[in-house]
Amino acid sequence: MTTPDPAERPPAETLVVGAGIAGLVLARELVLQGRQVRVLEASDRAGGQVASVELDGLRLDAGAEAFATRGGTVREYLERLGLADRIIAPRDAPAWLHAAEGQTVPLPAVSLLGIPAAPLADDVVAVVGRRGAWRGLLDALLPGPVGSRLPTVGALVRRRMGDAILEKLVAPVVEGIHSTHPDDLPVTAVPGLVHNLLRENSLGRAVARMRIDAPAGSLVASLEGGMATLVDALLAELDRFGVPVEYGVRVAEVHADHVVLASERDDAEPEVRHGHVVVAAPGLVDPADGSSAVQTATHLALLVLAPDPALAAAPRGTGVLVARGTSVVARALTHVTAKWATVRAAADGREVVRLSYERPPSLEQARLDAEALLGVSIPSDRVLAGEVVTWLRAARIAVTDDGIPIVGEQVAGTGLAAVIAHARATAERLGAPDDADSPTKESTP
């Protein structure tokens, strides 16, 4: 048998398993490195947690609705994709808090993740009570190093400011933003917090310093037409470069040089696809430390409401976070038409709200929660359309450097900035294929 000349062999494909944002970014970067790339996606759509639905003629975000602007990572990549003119900022208005006592009040004006700069300020006392506020003031009397080595935001705030500020103020904010309790949020997830605590000898003053030093502008941004615009742009790029994206392809096993596809029948011969494998979907690679790769579910309810002049004229900021212990089941509400001017314009007088839950809600529950959080009557006949959406978030896993390359939030952490940066770094590390010269690097916009 004659062995083909290596120079005559077709270059091996790189198989990217998963068409979430990480997989799409990685595929684009790899094809720019000169690789032949194919993307395999188990579902019938790309984008992962960046998804959209159409309700009453409106295209609305049903997953991630914004990205963090810190560091400029996402903005820079959007500029590369030609989306710079589509970036939009939210309305400059504070969020509100539905407190444990049932009242709905604005969040403290000077705070970070709910951590107040001035514990005795009236807007803090309104949430935690005077006794909790006085306990928070003890932070100013403690030496800076106290609590600075604690591993989580919850432990740090509890040590310096007490349980009332942690549970009534910080926890609702952290759970609304990070979908986890502060006791489970690493303090490293808030860059600069410990550094400024040691610098200012007070957690409150550290928050004030970080707010002063923060760059002008909003901490988050989105895209005109919704975050799914990013998915559209990435798919258009892959189509331009001839990268196939196959949907409905479920991968059962991954190996460094091939994948085994899931069979519909037990007696069917499994299909094998050969190529250089990169995993961009959770649950396919066992963690190096032997732990289980758990995914957590987030449930959203989207409601389109009939025009309401009172609600349009006096919204409760851009949304409401919910403390535990209230009669409201939702964990947070975003008043979408109050937050994003482009949605307000497209809605043509209608109001759009989205609520997040720990368990799948009914649309009736969402209506009742929206009524309580917004402080207005929302009769059933004023709900023009609604939908409940569930999506999964991957937990962080431990991996080895010599294993199958993995991208996505399971290794990069949460947030588009982390996911995009890690996917691009992985593509750079993998580099051009051994059997082909790399084309011109990033010669496209």
From TrEMBL:
It comes from the Bacteria. Residues 21-283 form the Amine oxidase domain. Pfam families: Amino_oxidase (PF01593). PANTHER family: PROTOPORPHYRINOGEN OXIDASE. This is FAD-dependent oxidoreductase.
